[in-house]
Amino acid sequence: MNRQSYPKNMKAFAKTAFTNAYNALNPYKLSDLWTVSSLLSCIEYFDAFEDSFNCLFPTLNERKISMFDKAILFSSAREYKDKCFTSKKLAKIFNSLNDATYTDELSDENKDPNIKFLNFIANLANSQFQYQNFNILIYLARAFALYEYFPNIYRDKLKDKHKRNFIDIPVIFNDKFGISIKQYLNIGFALFRLYNIKYDSFLKPNEKLRNEIIKRRQEETDISFLQSKVLSNIIDN
Questions:
Q1: Are 83 and 29 in contact (CB under 8 A)?
Q2: Crossing angle between the packed helical segments 87-100 and 224-235, to the nearest 10 degrees
Q3: pTM for this one?
Q4: 3 state SS for 162-215
Q5: pLDDT in tens, 119-132
Q6: Which positions ≥6 away from 133 have C-beta within 8 Å?
Q7: pLDDT of the residue at 59
Q8: Mean pLDDT for the chain?
Q9: Is the separation of the CB atoms in 34 and 72 below 8 Å?
Q10: Nearest CA-CA partner of 27 in 71, 68, 69, 82
Q11: Among 21, 91, 135, 162, which is 20 to 30 Å from 36 by CA?
């Protein structure tokens, strides 16, 4: 379906597409899905050091990963489920997420504070973390200042200013996830270093395939098949 054939009610169309995406994740083991998300984030981030963007762009991009993470959060995937997640299933889900991206905030109309907070966390990585300087220390310092340091020292002023719309990020984050934002960032730094090592060891796209993708992109020829092959090699192995 091309964009010209989309229904007039784009918001409803996008929400339906997103619902299809997260329902498709329901039969899978939760940790497997987060592992796939981590692999995708690792490739998207570290491969961008080679060029201005990763070799799987636009098939793989920050927004797509953020939407995939949100779909995991909304799904009923659980640890006891054992269906094998494959690259073919990812491709179908990505197709749904492509349609879902035609609206920005999929659950703005939902008044449930739990849903709003899940939306906030799901979007956090790409709205605040991804577009910063590549220096990991700057990432961590800015995130700590925004979500831990300033909210704590200016809590009373923020509460007075925002009234009923005030969100106590450090407190709610700890209540929801059982760790503080500082602990979360410490874990993130450890994972960053681990991903860096793993990317260089076995996640880095095949050099021959990568060069062919770059060549075809420059020639403005189709690269989707080659990109799918790279993802298949990583996810299915």
A1: yes
A2: 130
A3: 0.67
A4: HHHHCCCHHHHHHHHHCCCHHHHHHHHHHHHHHHHHHHHHHHCCCHHHHHHHHH
A5: 655 555 444 444 45
A6: 139
A7: 82
A8: 80
A9: yes
A10: 82
A11: 135
